[in-house]
Amino acid sequence: MTKIDFDNRAKTISYEGIKAPHYLGNYKRELAVTMPRMIENAYDWEHLPYVHPSSFAAIEEIDSGTWGWIAKTTLPGNPKKPVYQHIELLVDRAENYWATTVLDGLGEGMQIHTQATTLNETTIEVDVRFYLPEKPDDTSFEAAILSMLQAQYKTLYDEDLGLMQGRQEALNRQTEQQESPDTLTYSIADLETSLPHIITHNGKRFCLNRWQGNWVIYAADCPHLLGPLEHSPIDENGTVTCPWHGYKFNIINGNNCNGKPYRLNKTPVIRLNENYLHIAF
Fold it and tell me: CB-hemisphere CA count at 13 Å for 252?
């Protein structure tokens, strides 16, 4: 791979710089999300291999800040012969604009510039523009590259919508929380047919489930960015994995298993009484 001086790279977008590369075409789309969620998503390098496994197999941060990030990515394919890229993403917060550059590896020199525009309180539009270092000699090849990129970005935004909308719903729950009773009672027969069962108490969600023949309850929202832990199966070690960023948590003690500074919210107590299950907060 090309040796890159990461420390001395500019931390702002060069709008003059996109006059030199060859403009390939664009992908434009309306998204039912707010601008804060979209900008948050642009900064979020960690989600790429988990939300977009068909485009990214792994990612390793090199540097990041309010300016954006640089990371080494592994592309999907043969794990015995991994293909890497270094990718840089620069953000212009004032303009709701970000620019991605493939610094080396497959597609080296390609730039992808995105302009986001607010349409109303719940909808934005993204205009994704693709640039190549040079104009291809073969026009059919050029058309094929554009078609491939447009299809890839359609898939990327299809996948990102679930994360961004889920994040907004989780934030809304926290601000719209209502007082809940300190004890909830459920019929075990009813629960057995609807597991995992989600309980919301004072704005916090908990997942009621069965593991190794026992009833267990644990936080349903990842403490990192409120990812939905209820979608993860419980593994043999009592661990669930956030589908957004791969953070792992032990459901019994709430500890993070990746060495991250997060732990699950304290859980309520389960009490059994014949055919009923009582949850005490």
Answer: 8
pLDDT in tens, the chain (281 residues): 567 888 889 999 998 878 888 999 999 999 999 999 999 999 999 999 999 999 999 999 999 999 999 999 999 998 899 999 999 999 999 999 999 999 999 999 999 999 999 999 999 999 999 999 999 999 999 999 999 999 999 999 999 999 999 999 999 988 886 778 889 999 999 998 889 999 998 888 999 999 999 999 999 999 999 999 999 999 999 999 999 999 999 999 999 999 999 999 999 999 998 899 999 99
DSSP state of 59: E
**CA–CA gap between residue 208 and residue 228 (Å, rounded):** 13
- CA–CA gap between residue 16 and residue 5 (Å, rounded): 21
Q: Which amino acid is at 194?
A: S
Query: Nearest to residue 186, comparing CAs of 270, 88, 263?
Result: 270
